[in-house]
Amino acid sequence: QPVLWIPNQLVGVAQGMDVTLECHTEAYPNSINYWTDDKGQMILSSGRFDTIVAENGYKAYMRLKIKNVQPSDFMSYGCYAKNSFGETNGNVKVYEIPRQLMVNVPDLKESEEDRKKKKKKKGEENNELEEGWDGEPQGENHTKNHRRKEGQAGRSDRRRGGRRRGEDEDGDDGMVSTVTPDGVIEF
C-alpha cells in the first residue's frame, strides 16, 4: 500500500500570486498519483493549474502549481496515491495572507476584464473635470502638472524611485534622492 507524506500541510499566499503544493509517495507496485479539490474532483493540468508527477523507482514526487491565485482557490487540496494494495491520501490547506501583511509583494496580476474596467473608469474621470477659480480644468492630471510647475515632485517622479530637487531647494541642481530602509540616498 502507498505511503505518503506532505512537507507543508498549511500554505499561505496572497491573492494574485502563484503557489506550489508538494506531496511525496512511496509504493510498490507503483501508484497512480493525483490531486483533488475540496469537492473530490481530480485536478488536471490546464489553465492556471499545473500538475507534475516525477517518479524515481518506487518513489514519486507530486507538485501542484496554482497560478494567479483567486478567492475560490483558498481551500484544502487532496493528494492521492493508489495501487493494487490500497489507497493513501493527505491534505494541503491553502489560506489567504492579506497583501497588507506582506513585504516586497509583487503587483497583482490583472485579468483582461479588470484592465478594461480601469481604462474605462479613467476615461470617465478625465471627462468629469471641473473648472477651478482660474478657469483651468481641475482634476488629478491638472494637479500633477501644477505641482511640477511649482518645482514639486509629481507622482511619476516618485515611481522612478526618487524626488528631483528644484532650483529653489537646498543642494545641487538636478540631484535625486530616494528613501531606503538604510536611510536617504542622494545621487
Automatic annotation (TrEMBL):
Domain (Ig-like): give its ranges.
Answer: 2-95
> Which residues lie within the region annotated Disordered?
106-187
**Is Repeat given among the entry's keywords?**
yes
Under SUPFAM superfamilies, the record lists: Immunoglobulin
- Mind listing the UniProt keywords for this protein, alphabetically? Disulfide bond, Immunoglobulin domain, Repeat
> Which GO cellular component terms are attached?
neuron projection
Gene3D superfamilies xref list = Immunoglobulins
State if Disulfide bond is listed as a keyword: yes
Tell me what this protein is called: Ig-like domain-containing protein
Recorded source organism is: Cherax quadricarinatus (Australian red claw crayfish)
